[in-house]
Records
---
Amino acid sequence: MAAAPALKHWRTTLERVEKFVSPLYFTDCNLRGRLFGDSCPVAELSSFLTPERLAYQEAVQQDFRPAQVGDSFGPTWWTCWFRVELTIPEAWVGQEVHLRWESDGEGLVWRDGEPVQGLTKEGEKTSYVLTDKLGEEDPRSLTLYVEVACNGLLGAGKGHMIAAPDPEKMFQGLGEDNQRSYQALYTANQMVNVCDPAQPETFPVAQALASKFFGQRGGESQHTIHALGHCHIDTAWLWPFKETVRKCARSWVTVVQLMERNPEFIFVCSQAQQLAWVKSHYPGLHARLQEFACRGQFVPVGGTWVEMDGNLPSGEAMVRQFLQGQSFFLQEFGKMCSEFWLPDTFGYSAQLPQIMRSCGIRRFLTQKLSWNLVNSFPHHTFFWEGLDGSRVLAHFPPGDSYGMQGSVEEVLKTVAKNRDKGRTNHSAFLFGFGDGGGGPTQTMVDRLKRLCNTDGLPRVQLSSPERLFSALEGHSGQLCTWVGELFLELHNGTYTTHAQIKKGNRECERILHDVELLSSLALARSAQFLYPAAQLQDLWRLLLLNQFHDVVTGSCIQLVAEEATCHYEDIRSRGNTLLSAAAAALCAGEPGPEGLLIVNTLPWKRTEVLALPRPGGAHCLALVTVPGMGYAPAPTPTSLQPLLPQQPVFVVQETDGSVTLDNGIIRVRLDPTGRLTSLVLVASGREAIAEGAVGNQFVLFDDVPLYWDAWDVMDYHLETRKPVLGQAGTLAVGTEGGMRGSAWFLLQISPNSRLSQEVVLDVGCPYVRFHTEVHWHEAHKFLKVEFPARVRSPQATFEVQFGHLQRPTHYNTSWDWARFEVWAHRWMDLSEHGFGLALLNDCKYGASVRGSVLSLSILRAPKSPDSTVDMGRHEFTYALMPHEGSFQDAGVIPAAYSLNFPLLALPAPGPAPAAAWSAFSVSSPAVVLETVKQAETSLQGRKLVLRLYEAHGSHVDCWLHTSLPVQEAVLCDLLERRDPAGPLPLRDSRLKLTFSPFQVQSLLLVLQPAPS
Ligand SMILES: [Zn+2]
């Protein structure tokens, strides 16, 4: 059997099989060529041509002249007589012997004066059996005549050979829309794979494949449709969250009735949050759902808290979707989900397969890629391979819907559109009113029941996800594999729409990260500290809720956006309170000079300029160094260090109004309107801005989609590009230099919208920051900022969850240009060998790189379904980092983390500690310690979970060092279940870990009992 499934190409597969049995092509290695064992040329071949149709006796008297195999004869309607002298080798005794004769004319073989066989190539008669079995005494030499009518040009025979069984040619005449024809073709293709013409012992394997195919009786290969009752309820969209609670109740009460009346009816239900709402608002209904879950009629699927967006949430947030979801399903329904369920989400991160698998899920269902505007996705059932190589089985219901109604038309469409005919013979059919709820009806159930076994239609079963996926897994040997992200070629505006929601999401992901880390450290260091587990669960669930696929995407109504804004505000304020409490506990009892603690929540040492609060609300800048995941005392005003050996920042304004900022690492030059005319890496003198171009160029596009206003930005918006030009003389020096230098300017974007920006360069910092404030009052406009780089590369790199991936910078194929607007997390990079330019951001997600131009998407102005979206004031920061070498070696990843996780200056209740302290460090820059939290399984206990990932795309060994009192360390999965392999060796507070590219690993650390 072939090791890997074949490519999915009808024509090449068909022609491959044809060539394998071709008498014309590749006969040196194909089956036809080896059908005949030994061969030898005819002893002598001669011919004569005549326009007459002579009798045999007359013809054989004529003057025959020598002829060669391959000669041509004619003209048309003449006759060519051949005399064929044969000498059969001695060795062929006991074998079947043929004369093989291939000519374009119609031939007749004469033997001993009698016609014995017709020979026509078109009629596939190219062989005359001289004897079934050559006897010892049979004559070895004989003379035959072949009379050939020249109905065209002639070839000539190739000698006589020994025959083997003929291969089946079963694929001809079958169409491409037929399940059976694909099965036939793939069977034939497999036969070619297993059949070695030189090794007859392989033939029975091929014959067995053919027998299996022919052995299927009428109807056995009939497609099976697994009809699953479903009700897609958007957790908030054109209605607020509160209304969804009632939608769930209305829909599921109906479903309960249907389940009662139809014991064979199965309903699949996703989104733990909706079930949690029903549990608290309608406990009776929840109890009924639990009953039907026991009977197997109510099947929870998905495993996540909500059906989240598949692009924007961070890697850790995606993990939490499963962690919160699966634990809820386990607690309420006795088991976890085995299918990831995201039918309506706008694209799927390449890290999802790894996250799914580590959360106990190997199956995935969606249908959204059928919405692709440009390219039709090539599979409905396939293996999806993620960034790290993890594979899951993915299924897209071929009917391209999650809200079918059970019509015959939909059933037929499901079969006809299946792009994996001949590879799988099962597909899902999701029926029930969706989006706003409603769900299946008795009419739909009745319709589908009638189709269980109807002539001319596929078999329809009321089925379960388990039965569907088991059937798919049972015949997965021929499935193809898709590697990398599942990019939706539509809804690309959702990376940008509703900037405040995006900002809230990014900030709250940061706050929860910091709260968990500091609370974990406080737990480890203080016997009195209580880890705020319940509060953190609340806050996480709130954040996860807003990552629903119509909220964080910005495709919701104003009411929902307002609720989301409140949720983020809630997380911010409660999070900050928790942060202060943890910081206070962390340094309690440590004597120090001043009540201020500088905290670094990232796992590496940082030296940065920080604004320290001073009495009276003032601030002063200080250069501070803080170890990884730890703290340092705040420098006192008298102890503010001299900058040496760092070069201070120089700020120079020229007479033409341009400003140069220089910190000895990079030199930034802004023209009098604030655009970037030069960005130089000082050490190498290397210029990062393309020759003759300017960076930090704001551009405005017309942004009128075809239909889905908040969702879609169309390719043609690129044709309306208008640079926003400022006025000379608006650029001014802000901070004078020293610790920090800056310049600022105002820019009128349009009569209604304006922005102001401060361009900031700090001592020792490898990137320049652009603090931006925009007052935005537009309709159907798209604002971006562009940086043409002096870098050439066919690919750019974009950060995604726990890693990064490349996308093309050109529009060669339709798959390339369909990605004219893409998403990224905290950074993107365009690098050639030895040099590159990275663009970092603190709350943006939309991006693109075309040619050498890096572009960050800033604000949109759609008017539906929320006419007020994005109107008003916005504040955000992006940064630019030129670098030598690769972005990995240059430290682009930690720089982007730094921009997103500022050092914290937290008030301590008493004196702050006098010495710096670090909880964790990792020996390899390729490995990021992303998360430190308390283990879910020990809410009162002293167990921590650490999440690390390999961020460079490399195989690497590293050491994790900790100063915490660790008693035991063991690997665990994302659901925090211990690795059965047992504890890891822990020596001198160090653990050795091994990573493959983009691998995510979790560690369970059991801490020693608290000091009393
Ligand atoms: Zn939806």
---
Amino acid sequence: MQFDALIIGGGSAGMSCALVLGSAQPKLFAATKRIGIIAHQKTSHLQTALFNNVLGLKPGTLGSDILENGKAQLKDLYPHVQQIEKEKVTVITKTTEGFTITTNKNTYQTKLAIITVGYTSLLTIKGFEDHIEPHPRAAAEKDRIWLKNENHLIEDGLYVAGTLAGWRSQFAIACGSGAQVATDIFSLWNDGIHTKIHDKISG
Ligand SMILES: Cc1cc2nc3c(=O)[nH]c(=O)nc-3n(C[C@H](O)[C@H](O)[C@H](O)COP(=O)(O)OP(=O)(O)OC[C@H]3O[C@@H](n4cnc5c(N)ncnc54)[C@H](O)[C@@H]3O)c2cc1C
């Protein structure tokens, strides 16, 4: 098994999930977990976004800078999270121990998979035909989709986050959805105990 948790997609939800998952390494329950992200960003909605309405972001912040800076933040702070570049997922299949994730270049095994490819992109990934439905919180004429889920869980070990999980398209909501999945995974790894990771100032 190559990964304990593998995130698919490097946009708002995916990068947020990766940062929160990565931040748990000092904790015993996460210390040996192998975490990866297929950090594809080319088709992120952040690429053309301009932010004035997000708490904590300087007005005028570019989504393209958030994408770039997010990868650098992940690499600097949590280098144990493997960032897989220049690969796009084509197929996801269930195995006895988890999932096989096939990209245009490689094949990965993971116990947990988190799909964060946005509400327009999934149709290029095979293996989900039965879970796709019209998005419940987007205008019908936009033809958006979601992966039917309950509290981000599609089935055991398989999570969806961000707009593809059925949330409306706001940056903070997508990031929050990714963070929520990360903390759900902590609770799974930590014997069912509700867990979050907070840093605080010392003194
Ligand atoms: C023009 C524009 C302006 C916006 N302005 C605002 C704003 O002012 N305020 C606000 O709150 N929100 C704004 N948004 C919305 C915000 O950008 C989205 O809500 C948010 O990016 C959605 O996050 P997500 O993770 O669901 O999807 P995305 O950020 O789109 O991420 C999906 C990721 O999956 C990757 N991917 C796709 N297919 C595959 C595959 N097969 N394999 C691997 N990876 C894959 C993509 O490359 C991408 O990185 C704006 C969006 C746009 C388009």
